[in-house]
């Protein structure tokens, strides 16, 4: 039900046609620039190879891991050297870099609160902490003192904690792995386990009023999983949007904002679920593959069931199944899950997206407006601490959004009349051929282009997008759609030709769609047949006649309110991201044309494959 508006495919990136992918940085550059870079890297590789075969220099007092020589290598060189190093560690069970288990016993999110009162130079050796995290930076001060900046993993409480780990040789556990061996093979990006105690450092030259840094003083450090690749740096940044989307795991690992966006999305989903559970709604699951694509005006994906030898459709909406459950004596149901629509990919649309729909027996569209205001405004307050947020679009325009109830309400046809300066036909004539000619004239007059087929519903929807949706910055309900735009909505109780429906918009984009449900099986059949006629006219998004659903209606659907909200779209506004990619863990991407040329780790290390098991025929 949510996000029912039609979309157009994203504009083709013609300007990138003559650019080539630099596999090291992820950028797209001209052919001459790419050749220049490749020559420079070849020179650097030859220089590194020559240095590797040169006689060893006198050893310094610094441990080998201090920087790992990273600053002298490009990412490909680093990958090859690091891969061989890790493979050598694997040959000795005592240096296995992939242990089965490390026992963590401390909630790092409490670290600052619990130990923030420690004074400079104060430590608590009796308080053993066992934590784990990823190394983001390494600093040394001689051979016996190493500092690691680590970050722990995200959970429901936080996106992870930044911590400093102080490693001093004199603190190393007696009888354990020697200090030098513990740290010799650690690099940026490695995941390590730390056994230690809390304290504050006591650096020299502290300014008045400053304190040493709250840290974990390590008595033991263990490599839990090495990172074979060089982490991004100033020299080799990781900022290209396309590369970030393709290597989302690295984007989450490296960019706190990306991780926080997905963390906030999780909080949002949990709050919404709790909201409906507290109001005695039952969460249910309905099929993802349908024999008939229904429940929303959208183009479906087609798949095939081999055993039954039949085509099936990935669901565009769960609506019809959820209403069948209301027929089956469930009074309040909701489902949160994936839908699939074979439409355009752009900044606000992904082929698969998450929505929540609920159906509430004995409620109508006015009850749904109230619960929408209550849910969304309280959600914003819970997540941000305020009813007011900011959202910046792709053009750099920043909107101040006030989510507090009550929301603005706009009646569709009167608002179009005001915008166009034209009196529309009577509501009960909006479906006629005469109205079609009128709408074509209005579109031409207002310079609004509507792609074919030019049905009445599509033209009114296009006009609404141009002249009403563009005014919706703060949350706004657009009400009372024509019946032919809403094949599953109940007719308006006092305005013949309209239906009891609303769409909620924020920052010019739809976030929710709801209506009093049509429960008259006779009327519903006529609506389905009208949709079938629109499909015959070339509207691929129109619905077909669903006999199973009509049969369910004949058993009696009570007066019901139905509602849907787009989780992805709402997450975009609440995390201030104008691209839907940013709020999806792994967004849909076009196929990457460039073949993979980089050697795999097993190839570099010369790892031999295990013998294949013979299969008897």
TrEMBL record:
This one is known as lysine--tRNA ligase
Task: Show the SUPFAM superfamilies listed in the entry.
Answer: Class II aaRS and biotin synthetases, Nucleic acid-binding proteins
Q: What class of enzyme is it?
A: ligase
Q: Which InterPro entries match?
A: Aa-tRNA-synt_II, aa-tRNA-synth_II, aa-tRNA-synth_II/BPL/LPL, Lys-tRNA-ligase_II, Lys-tRNA-ligase_II_bac/euk, Lys-tRNA-ligase_II_N, Lys-tRNA-synth_II_C, NA-bd_OB-fold
Write out the similarity annotation. Belongs to the class-II aminoacyl-tRNA synthetase family.
Taxonomy, top ranks, is: Eukaryota, Fungi, Dikarya, Ascomycota, Pezizomycotina
User: What's in the keyword line of the UniProt record?
Assistant: Aminoacyl-tRNA synthetase, ATP-binding, Ligase, Nucleotide-binding, Protein biosynthesis
Q: Region annotation Disordered: residue ranges? A: 1-77
Compositionally biased spans, kind Basic and acidic residues? 20-49
């Amino acid at each position: 039900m949510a996000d029912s508006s039609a979309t157009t495919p994203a504009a083709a990136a013609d300007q990138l046609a003559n650019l080539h992918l630099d596999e090291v940085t992820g950028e797209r550059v001209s052919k001459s620039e790419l050749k220049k870079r490749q020559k420079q890297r070849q020179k650097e590789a030859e220089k590194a190879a020559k240095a590797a075969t040169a006689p060893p220099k006198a050893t310094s007092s610094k441990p080998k891991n201090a920087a790992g020589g990273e600053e002298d290598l490009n990412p490909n060189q680093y990958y090859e050297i690091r891969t061989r190093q890790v493979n050598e560690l694997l040959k000795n069970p005592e240096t296995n870099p992939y242990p089965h288990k490390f026992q963590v016993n401390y909630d790092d999110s409490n670290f600052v609160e619990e130990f923030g009162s420690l004074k400079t130079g104060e430590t608590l050796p009796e308080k053993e902490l066992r934590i784990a995290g990823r190394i983001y930076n390494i600093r040394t001060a001689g051979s016996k003192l190493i500092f690691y900046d680590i970050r722990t993993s995200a959970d429901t409480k936080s996106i992870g904690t930044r911590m400093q780990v102080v490693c001093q040789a004199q603190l190393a556990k007696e009888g354990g792995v020697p200090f030098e061996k513990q740290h010799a093979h650690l690099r940026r990006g490695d995941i390590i386990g730390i056994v230690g105690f809390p304290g504050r450092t006591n650096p020299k030259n502290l300014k008045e009023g400053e304190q040493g840094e709250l840290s974990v003083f390590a008595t033991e450090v263990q490599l839990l999983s090495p990172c074979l690749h060089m982490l991004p740096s100033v020299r080799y940044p990781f900022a290209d949007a396309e590369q970030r989307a393709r290597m989302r795991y690295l984007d989450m690992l490296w960019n706190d904002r990306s991780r926080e966006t997905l963390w906030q999305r999780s909080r949002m989903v949990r709050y919404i679920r709790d909201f409906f559970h507290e109001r005695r709604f039952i969460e249910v699951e309905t099929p993802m593959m349908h024999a008939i694509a229904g429940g929303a005006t959208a183009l479906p994906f087609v798949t095939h069931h081999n055993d039954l030898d039949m085509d099936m459709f990935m669901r565009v909406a769960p609506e019809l199944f959820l209403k069948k459950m209301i027929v089956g004596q469930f009074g309040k149901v909701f489902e949160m899950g994936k839908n699939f629509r074979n439409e355009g990919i752009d900044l606000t649309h992904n082929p698969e997206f998450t929505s929540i729909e609920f159906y509430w027996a004995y409620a109508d569209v006015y009850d749904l407006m109230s619960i929408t205001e209550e849910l969304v405004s309280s959600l914003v307050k819970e997540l941000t601490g305020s009813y007011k947020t900011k959202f910046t679009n792709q053009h750099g325009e920043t909107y101040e959004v006030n989510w507090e109830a009550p929301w603005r309400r706009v009646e569709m046809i009167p608002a179009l009349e005001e915008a166009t300066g034209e009196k529309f036909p009577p509501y009960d004539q909006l479906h006629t051929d005469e109205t079609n000619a009128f709408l074509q004239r209005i579109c031409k007059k207002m310079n609004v282009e509507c792609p074919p087929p030019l049905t009445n519903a599509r033209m009114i929807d296009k006009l609404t997008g141009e002249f009403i949706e563009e005014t919706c910055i703060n949350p706004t309900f657009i009400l009372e759609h024509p019946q032919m735009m809403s094949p599953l909505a109940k007719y308006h109780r006092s305005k013949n030709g309209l239906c009891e429906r609303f769409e909620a918009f924020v920052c010019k984009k739809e976030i929710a769609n709801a209506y009093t449900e049509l429960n008259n099986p006779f009327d519903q059949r006529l609506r389905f047949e009208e949709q079938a006629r629109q499909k015959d006219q070339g509207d691929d998004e129109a619905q077909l006649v669903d006999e199973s659903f009509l049969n369910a209606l004949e058993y009696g659907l009570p007066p019901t309110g139905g509602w849907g909200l787009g989780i992805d779209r709402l997450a975009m506004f609440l995390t201030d991201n104008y691209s839907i990619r940013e709020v999806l863990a792994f967004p849909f991407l076009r196929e990457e044309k460039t073949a993979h040329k980089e050697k795999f780790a097993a190839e570099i290390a010369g790892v031999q494959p295990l013998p294949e098991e013979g299969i008897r025929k």
